[in-house]
Amino acid sequence: MQPKAFLKKIYKGAIWDVKTEQKEIYLSFDDGPVPIITDWVLDELKKYQAKATFFCVGNNILKYPKIYERILAEGHTVGNHTMHHVKGFKLSQADYLKEIEACHALIKNPLFRPPYGQLKPSQFKMLKNKGYKVVFWDVISYDYEQINAQKCLQNAINNTVKGSIVLFHDSVKAEKNLRYVLPLYLKHFANLQFSFKSLNHV
Questions:
Q1: Are 8 and 124 within 8 A, CB to CB?
Q2: Residue 1 pLDDT
């Protein structure tokens, strides 16, 4: 059994991709909103009439409300990424839920992505029971890693298929690679007649 198949069995009911025969890609950006970086991402998306899903950290929403409002105003979808970008493996179920519910009070959207991809099976079950929709990804750009930006780009391009949920980060850590990868990624798939959608209908 492949690692992803194993994880899909553990997190049964989580969203990893979108089943479609259309030439659609579902871009997602974690860890924002962040000054300059998130605004730049929004500018790049606008060039291709691209929509995306931003999994926002609640504390960043409070610090940068105007950027958050811009995300919404430009027709993108927002999801919950906890209040303080916490690691699920290190928190009790009760403390983890507090982090999620504090962010939910700001976002009011059931889409949730666990920071670092860390989610205990018991936490996943709890979230499902409370009506949250847990969203993972099937393509990760590794933009946050200290690796060659060209490798990030090729990894993202080579693994993207119809209905892929692609993970980028609008964060300081990822900025250098993201500024190289995102424009070229958008151009590549736009030239192939792909459209870029948000997860608002999932």
A1: no
A2: 36
CA distance 13 to 104: 20
Q: Which CATH architecture has domain 27-197?
A: Alpha-Beta Barrel (3.20)
Q: Is the pTM of this model over 0.85?
A: yes
Q: Report, in angstroms and rounded to the nearest whole number, the Rg of the chain calculated over CA atoms.
A: 16
The verdict on whether omega for the bond into residue 33 sits within 30 degrees of 0, i.e. cis, is yes
Q: Determine whether 16 is exposed, middle or buried from the number of CB atoms within 10 Å of its CB (0-12, 13-18, 19+).
A: middle
Does 141 score more than 80 pLDDT?
A: yes
Q: How many Cα atoms occupy the beta-carbon half-sphere of 160 within 13 Å? A: 26
Which residues on neighbouring strands pair with residue 123, listed in sequence order? Answer: none
Q: Do 142 and 119 meet the contact criterion of CB atoms below 8 Å apart?
A: no
- For residues 113 and 88, is the Cβ–Cβ distance under 8 A? no
Which helix (H) or strand (E) segment holds residue 83: the answer is none
Q: Which of 24-28, 111-115, 144-148, 195-199 has the lowest mean pLDDT?
A: 144-148
* The token pair that represents 190 in the structure block: 């736009």
Instruction: Return the active site residues.
Output: 30, 169
3 upstream amide cis, omega within 30 of 0: no
Put residue 12 in one of left, alpha, beta given phi > 0 → left and psi -120 to 50 → alpha: beta
